[in-house]
Structure formats: C-alpha cells, structure tokens
Design brief:
Elements lengths: L2 E10 L3 H14 L3 E7 L6 E11 L13 E4 L4 H4 L9 E4 L15 E3 L2 H8 L5 H12 L4 H12 L4 H24 L16 E4 H11 L4 E4 L6 H14 L2 E4 L3 H13 L4 E6 H5 L2 H10 L3 E7 L16 H6 L8 E3 L4 H18 L2 E7 H4 L2 E4 L63 H17 L7 E3 L6 E6 L3 H10 L5 E6 L1 E3 L5 H7 L2 E6 L5 H10 L5 E4 L8 H10 L1
Parallel strand pairs: 1-4, 4-5, 5-6, 8-9, 8-10, 10-11, 11-13, 12-13, 16-17, 16-19, 19-20
Antiparallel strand pairs: 1-3, 2-3, 7-14, 12-18, 15-17
Helix pairs in contact: 1-4, 1-5, 3-4, 4-6, 5-6, 7-8, 7-13, 9-11, 16-19
Length: 568
Amino acid sequence: MKDISIVLCGEAGQGIATVEQLVTGMLKLSGYHVYSTSEFMSRIRGGTNSTLIRISDEKSRSAFIDRIDILFPLSSKALKHLENRISPETIIIGEEGNIAEEYCPNKSNIIKVDFTKIAKEIGGKIYTNIVSVGIFLALFGVEETISKSYLTKRFASKGDTILQNNVNACQRGSEIGNKILEDGKIKIDLKKDDSVTNYLTLNGSQAIAMGSIAAGLNFISSYPMSPSTGVLVFLSQKAEDFGIVIDQAEDEIAAVNKGIGAWYAGARAMITTSGGGFALMTEGLSLSGILETPMIFHIAQRPGPGTGLPTRTGQEDLQFVLNSGHGEFARAVFAPGNAEEGFYLTQHAFNLADKYQIPVFILTDQFYLDSHYIIPDLDLSNIKNEKQIVKTNANYKRYLLTDNGISPRGIPGYGSGLVNVDSDEHDEEGHITEDVHYLRPKMVEKRLFKKLKLLKKDIIKPELIGPTDYSILLVGWGSTCSAIKEALELSDRKDVAFLHFKQVFPLSDDTAEYLKKAKKLIVVENNATAQFGKVLTLELGIRPNDQFLKYNGMPFSVEEIKEFIAKL
C-alpha cells in the first residue's frame, strides 16, 4: 500500500484539530507526504466530527477517500457516524466504551487502549488526545527528538508543567504504538522522502491569504462567516509584518463599501465572506461595476439556502456569483483546486482587477479551505504586481472613452486632476448624466463588451488530465480536481480524460475544442443543478451529455468517482 488512511472521530472540544496539526507537522518533518481534511458539525462542543489524515511515501494524495485503514474513535458515537466507511480491514484503536462492536465487521482488528486512564495518570483527561498522537508517531517511526521539539514549540508558552505533561503523554502513547507494532497487528512499510522535510504545510485559507499578500494586499474589511473566516484570521496574524490594515466590519454591507473606498484611495483590498454574507454585498458589487473600481471578492462556499449547513461543503454559489448585482458589467471568476493554485490565482486576480478595473472573484469552499496540504516551496520569481494607477493632470477624465474601454485610473492626491466618481450613470468626467442617446450606450459597452473582449486575452485555460485521445471527458472545477484526478489515475480506462477548470468565467474560445472532441461529455459538481454545465451551454452552446452531482454537504470521494468511471 502506497498510502495509509487514518481517521480520528469524536466530539468538538476533544482536541481532534490539535492532533491533526501535530501529527501532520511531525510526519512531514519525518519525510512523509501528508494530507488532511476534516468534516465537522456546527457545534462549539459536542456533535460528531472526523479528521482524515493520509500518509504517503511517493506523493501527496490530496483527496478525500472513504477507505479507513486505522480508526481512532474518541467518543461512543464515532463508529455509528462512520459505519459506512468501516470495512473488515479497518483497524480500530480505542477505549472499550467507545467501541460498539455491532459496527465492527472484524472483531480481531479491535485494539483496546484505555486513553482516559493513561491521561489521568499523567495529569488529566485533557491529555487523552496527545496519547493518540504518541501512538501515531510510533506507528510511523517518528524520532523522539522531532516530537519533543514540536511539542515544545506548541506548549512551552503554557508553562513547564503543561509542557512536560504533554511530552509524557506522547511518550506513553509511543510505548503503546511500539507494542502494537511488536504484536504484528499493524504493519506499515512506507518509505521516507527527505526532501519533504523542507516543504510548506498550509491549508486552503492560508493559501488564499498568502496569495493576497504576494499581490500587495494592504486592506481587508470583512465580517466573520464560516468557512471564510480563516483567511481573515491568518491575515490578521500577519498584518503587522506586511503592513495590512485589518477591519472587522460591523456587517457585510459596510465591508464591501470600505473595500471599494480603499481601492479608490489607491490600496489593494479584498473582502472574504461566504454565500450568505455575499448576498448582502450585491449592491456593493454593482457599485464596483459602475465606478469601474477594482475589487477582490473571496467567496467561500457552503451549502445553502439560508444558513444551510454552515460547516459543510458545496459548489452552490457559482450561478449566484455570475448573475449577482443589478445591471450589466464585466467580471472574472477563479476556482482553485489545490493550495498552489489558490496562491497563484489569488495573486493573479489582483493584477487582473487592477488592469481592467473590474470585480474579480475567487471561489472556494469549505473542503478546500479546511484541507491541509504539504507542497514544495512557492515560486516567487515570476510574481509581479502591476499597479495601473496614473498621475493625473488638470484635464483628467476618470471615465475617458478609449478604444479598448480602459480609462486611465487616477487616485485622489496623486497629480493635479480631480478624480470624480459617481454611482449614477456619468459622463467622462464622472458627472451625472442622462444622455441616453450617446453616453449611456457608450458607457455600457465600455463596462461590459470591451472589457470582456480584453478579458478573453488573459484567460487561464483549463488543464487536460489523462489521455489526449479520449472519447469520454469529465469536466470539473475548483476543489473537485483532486478526487477526479486520483480516481482517473487509479482507473484502467484509456478512453476517459478530465478537464479541470481553474477559471470558470469567462471561458476561452478554444475550450470548445476540448468539449466537442468528446463523444460523451460529463460534468462533475458539488451541487444539485450542474451549475457549471449551464455555463458551458450558455457561453459555448455545448450541452453536457450527463452529470455526476453530489449535494449532501460532503466532498466527492476518490472511490465513488472511480466507481462512476468504471460504469461509464
């Protein structure tokens, strides 16, 4: 087996996220490719949550899988919660009270460990999760120097007693893990890759935030909303280092208007929100459209409508983003499929917004944002921030009609000109007009058609994965990429390929060539109505033959896509 799938399942408040952070960090330092992702209920305490950690010796497997090789149930409800994923091969390590044997198809694979008793002997029940960390590390041969160093960095600020208790809990867990290996109940034979120790560990939220920092972000105004808040939190932590003004706005309407004001003043600004928050921002979006002020919207999707499933995932807001706002104006929409794409696409989005003076969207989802990736160091050599601000003169016209539709963008105080903008229809100088015979049509054409024509020249084309002589083409966008790609790699089909879209609007004209080549075109999406399939039909006149849709709040697993491919 080239990768091991380990799942921890318990209640919110039991420290599952702490185990995830510690284990992924220490395993990476030991030379393993690691990926993790979580599914959790909307609870501060209680509920039933699980974290999947995949450890590989050849390359990072950054996709969700149903298979569980080793399961740590930390509550009595864990096994019932995961019963559809537990197989006769699953090894279950847990306390007797947490192992309901009716959900264990193979009783010989149960390893009982009294975590609570051990934790209490050390200093309290709170150390239960660190005992499980120790077992983890022993199973994969992580050196004690690595674990001690990592625990010291994490817990030293809490005092010597707490630090030592955590070290002791980890050591007791390691002793249990070594005993399990000696008994031969678990055999792990993964090779280490020393180059991995220098890789970056980051989640999707951090990738988006780091991309915005690389783009020169210096202002963010947002109202917290799951699952988008991680971006705001990370930028807040780095604000002093990079000169970023952080504003936790009183509501989403204020947030978007502050962002527009910041761009007007010459800053590079972004808001981060989710579908429900963006619903309040649509008037501000149209304001950005008519003012021709750049704006970056990060929309972290979750299932709706209403409050929906606040902590689950979905791709339900694409049509909302494409059709939001009153009136007609150009926009661009990106959807990263992994951490690297999130970083580079976000940096690119700022330049695009600045260049064409339009709103640009980065569309992610809970699964993407809460997944932890390890990646090679990011390449900053080609990062260039192209600010399009001009110095104004006395004759400056903010909305000068030009051949290509892009007016010189000035900012107040830089030059001698007046930078006049207005949310009503306006003339070239920015004054209100009701010239419906000449100026109104010219301004609409400027904001919409001419800018869309220019955007076509800057499109990031879709990526074809798999055989070039395909007859069946799967089409996906954003976070579906990892599962579809891995499923295709595991499939023995030579007639199926995958077209991954990082930019979902506008589409390049040559996209149609990929689609028309297929005898059967199938869209794979985390929504109920094949929203991107509608984009293909509307923009290119091509209607998909079939669709594979999932809308229960969970991401696609590799297994279900592989099974779907096999039945084609």
